[in-house]
Prior knowledge:
mainly alpha; 6 helices; 45% helix
Amino acid sequence: FQQVIFNLKNVDTETESLEQLFLLKENEENYYHAIERFRNRFLGEIPHRSHKHVSSPYKNSASKRLVMFLRWMVRDDRKGVDFGIWKNLPQKYLSIPLDVHTANISRKLGILNRTQNDWKAVEELDQIIRKYNAEDPAIYDYALFGIGVSKELL
């Protein structure tokens, strides 16, 4: 924990905002690489126990917490659920935070075939949901999660 606080202090000192750590580079169409860049910068070079608490899409994790954090900070829903305070990151590249509820309902609806809840599943779901709303694909998170929690379709 101490190392995380130290690294957070360094990031705060060296950057204007955490937002800068998630900036997309040319030809990136989701936050896969940006999440990994953030993770590496935030955790630092020195291996410590905190590494296991910040998931890596490069290790095929769905990175649910970081995907959800991005949704909160980037998406402007004007209803107060998502803050939308970061203006330099495009919301059209957001993904649905994949958890057991959103994954199970997505499979039940036939929009997700992959059986593992991993980054490949996130990308598979991205391909489908962006066909329905290319500018705000994360909007479907609420519906999929809500139906999944209620277990109405399971």
